[in-house]
Design goal:
Layout (H helix, E strand, L loop, with lengths): L1 H13 L10 H4 L7 E10 L8 E15 L2 E14 L4 E15 L4 E14 L7 E16 L4 E16 L5 E15 L4 E14 L5 E13 L2
Antiparallel strand pairs: 1-2, 1-10, 2-3, 3-4, 4-5, 5-6, 6-7, 7-8, 8-9, 9-10
Length: 222
């Protein structure tokens, strides 16, 4: 019985922190060479196995490093904080990524990014999340329909490691897909909307949880 209860608690924890930050097309599209592109993002997640939802807010910054062959090598650094569930467990995380964004035509591009994330959380119960780490890849496709509207598709896969206050080294994976949108407000500003679905799994078990993810953001280029 204790093992089952702990397993359910772990499944809830895995649903408590956003995996890879939702990609926004204005940020990962080629053409930002020599520019710092910060994004303020707000995300919300569906209810986990305990019926707890979560939300967070953060800053996601990207810098174009090198341009070649209509593509761009970029570095992305982000930080995020938020709350989970009725107990309002607080968490904060930092992440980084190195990616390549390639222009396919005047209206199309693809991007592939390798990333890493680490986070810590407060808690008062033994089954609360203490810290976690993730590493994985994110692929994104974007199509520019007009000067003000871009739509795309994305997918990601992460390997995860979680420590609870009572148990350490819980390994698993997270994968998902979504549809990002970018709406140009001004020449330097974009509204980003992301709707998707993600699944968390614990290695060597049949514990799995799927849920929706919604992200809203504002990007400003400097």
């Amino acid at each position: 019985m204790k093992k089952i209860a702990l397993s359910l608690a772990v499944a809830g924890v895995m649903s408590g922190a956003l995996a890879s930050e939702a990609p926004n097309l204005a940020n990962v599209a080629p053409g930002n060479y020599g520019k710092f592109v910060p994004t303020i993002d707000l995300h919300a997640k569906g209810k986990d196995i305990f019926g707890d939802a979560s939300f967070g807010i953060g800053i996601d910054g990207k810098f174009g490093l090198v341009q070649a062959l209509s593509g761009e090598l970029y570095l992305r650094v982000a930080t995020q904080g938020g709350y989970k569930g009725a107990s309002a467990q607080r968490y904060i995380s930092g992440s980084g990524g190195l990616g390549w964004s390639q222009k396919l035509s005047e209206n199309q591009f693809v991007a592939l990014e390798a990333n890493y994330k680490y986070g810590v959380a407060t808690g008062g119960k033994l089954t609360d999340l203490k810290n976690w780490s993730e590493y994985g890849v994110t692929a994104t496709y974007g199509y520019k329909f007009s000067d003000w509207f871009t739509m795309g598709a994305s997918g990601f896969y992460d390997k995860t490691n979680y420590d609870l206050y009572a148990v350490k080294g819980i390994k698993g994976s997270t994968y998902g897909f979504g549809v990002p949108l970018s709406i140009s407000i001004t020449k330097t500003g974009n509204l980003n909307i992301y709707g998707g679905y993600q699944t968390q799994k614990i290695d060597d078990s049949n514990i799995k949880k799927s849920q929706p993810v919604v992200s809203l953001g504002v990007t400003v280029k400097f």
